[in-house]
Design brief:
By secondary structure, the chain is α/β, with parallel strands linked by helices. It folds into two domains: 99 residues, Arc Repressor Mutant, subunit A, CATH 1.10.10.10; 185 residues, Vaccinia Virus protein VP39 (Rossmann fold, 3-Layer(aba) Sandwich). The protein has 14 helices and nine strands. Helix 1 packs across helix 4, helix 1 crosses helix 6 and helix 3 crosses helix 4. It is globular. The chain starts with a helix and ends with a strand.
Length: 367
C-alpha cells in the first residue's frame, strides 16, 4: 500500500527534475545571450524593445522578442511596461546583474559557467559511447566553449586574488619572487594563460613558462602574450612537466585547478619536484570538497561531481589515465600523492575561497 508520505516524496522528486530541466534550459538561454552579445547590447542602451534589440544585436526580430520575454520571465531581465503590446515592451538589465553577466573583470562574473555547460552539451553522443566502452572523451572534443569558459571563469580570481592573498600566504615564496636574481615559475596546466599573466604582473622580475597538453590553448595563450606585451617574460609550450625538465630549475611550480585532471598525478608531482630549485615549492589550487564521501552532499559537492561525470573524468580517461581521479579531489588524496611523490611537507594554506583549496608542497627529496 502506497502511503501519503511516499506519494508526496515521489511528487517532490518529480518536481525537482522539472525544476532542474528548467534551470538547464535557462542556462542555455544565458549562453545564447552571451554568444549573440545580447546582454552587452542591452547594458549599453539601458533599455530596448524587441525591434531595437534585433537591430543593434543583428538578430531576427521574432527571436529577439521571445528571448527578451523568456529572460524577463526567468528574472534575468526586467520588463518595464508589461501591459503594453509585445512589440512596445521595453526590457533592461538590472544593475545588480551587470557584474555577473557583462563585466568580465568583476569577481562576480559567473557567466562563463554557462559557456562551459554549452561545451558539455556538444559532446553528449561521445559521452554516451564512452560510458558504454570505458573510453574517454578528449579535452579537445569539448571545443572552445570549454577552453574559453574555464579561462574566463577563473580570470577574475587571478586578477583580484593571486597577488593580494594567494601568494602572500607563502611568505618565503612571495619574497623570493620579488627579489633578485629574477626567479623562474613553471605554470602547469596553464590553459589560455590567465594564471601565467597574473603571476608575471604580480612579480615584474620573474619569467613564467606555461605548459599545457592542449595545443589549441597554447596557441591562444601565445597570441595573448604578444598582445599583452609580455612575450619576453611569459612563454608557452605544449606538453607536460617531464617535457621541460631540461629547462629548469624553477623557484615555484603552480597548478591551478589542474592536478585532478592529470592522468598520472604522482608522476607529475614527482617531476615537478625534480625541476624545483633548492628550497622551491609547488603551489596547488584544486577543488574545495569534503575530506570524505557523504551523500547526499552540499551544493559544492554536487557541482563538482556534475563536472566530474560530464567532463573531467572522461577527459582524463582519454589520456590513458593511471589514476582517473575525477573532479572531486579531496585533501587526504593530495597529501597521499605528495608523500608518494617524495615531498616532505604538504601544507593547506589559510586562504579563503569558496571553490578552491590551496596546498604548498615543499621539502622534495627529504621525505
Amino acid at each position: 500500500m502506497t502511503t501519503t508520505t511516499q506519494i508526496e516524496a515521489r511528487e517532490a522528486f518529480a518536481d525537482r527534475l522539472v525544476e532542474g530541466v528548467t534551470h538547464a534550459m535557462e542556462t542555455i538561454s544565458v549562453h545564447l545571450g552571451l554568444e549573440l552579445g545580447l546582454y552587452r547590447t542591452i547594458a549599453d542602451v539601458k533599455s530596448a524593445t524587441p525591434a531595437e534589440m534585433a537591430r543593434r544585436a543583428g538578430i531576427a526580430a521574432r527571436y529577439a522578442r521571445e528571448w527578451l520575454e523568456q529572460q524577463a520571465v526567468a528574472g534575468y531581465l526586467i520588463c518595464e511596461n508589461q501591459a503594453e503590446p509585445p512589440e512596445h515592451r521595453r526590457y533592461r538589465l538590472p544593475e545588480e546583474h551587470r557584474d555577473v553577466l557583462v563585466v568580465e573583470d568583476s569577481p562576480y562574473f559567473a557567466a562563463p559557467l554557462t559557456q562551459q555547460f554549452a561545451g558539455i552539451t556538444a559532446v553528449l553522443p561521445q559521452l554516451l559511447a564512452a560510458y558504454r566502452t570505458g573510453a574517454g572523451v578528449p579535452f579537445s572534443a569539448y571545443g572552445r566553449d570549454i577552453r574559453a569558459g574555464i579561462a574566463a571563469g577563473n580570470r577574475p580570481m587571478f586578477l583580484h586574488e593571486l597577488a593580494a592573498t594567494w601568494m602572500p600566504a607563502m611568505p618565503e615564496v612571495h619574497h623570493r619572487l620579488l627579489a633578485a636574481p629574477p626567479a623562474r615559475v613553471l605554470d602547469l596546466g596553464c590553459g589560455l594563460g590567465a594564471s601565467s599573466f597574473a603571476l608575471a604582473a604580480a612579480y615584474p622580475q620573474i619569467s613564467v613558462l606555461g605548459v599545457d597538453l592542449d595545443a589549441a590553448s597554447v596557441v591562444e595563450a601565445r597570441t595573448a602574450s604578444v598582445e599583452a606585451g609580455v612575450a619576453n617574460r611569459v612563454t608557452f609550450v605544449v606538453g607536460e612537466v617531464a617535457d621541460v625538465a631540461g629547462v629548469g630549475p624553477f623557484e615555484l611550480v603552480t597548478m591551478f585547478e589542474a592536478l585532478h585532471d592529470m592522468a598520472d598525478p604522482r608522476a607529475v608531482l614527482r617531476s615537478a619536484g625534480e625541476v624545483l630549485s633548492e628550497g622551491g615549492s609547488v603551489l596547488i589550487a584544486d577543488e574545495r570538497v569534503a575530506d570524505s564521501f557523504s551523500a547526499p552532499g552540499d551544493l559544492t559537492e554536487r557541482l563538482m561531481y556534475g563536472w566530474s561525470i560530464l567532463h573531467c573524468l572522461p577527459a582524463t580517461l582519454a589520456e590513458g589515465s593511471l589514476e582517473a581521479n575525477g573532479t572531486v579531489l579531496r585533501a587526504p588524496t593530495v597529501a597521499g600523492w605528495a608523500a608518494d611523490a617524495g615531498f616532505a611537507d604538504c601544507q593547506i594554506l589559510p586562504i579563503e575561497n569558496p571553490f578552491w583549496r590551496f596546498y604548498q608542497l615543499s621539502g622534495y627529496g627529504r621525505s
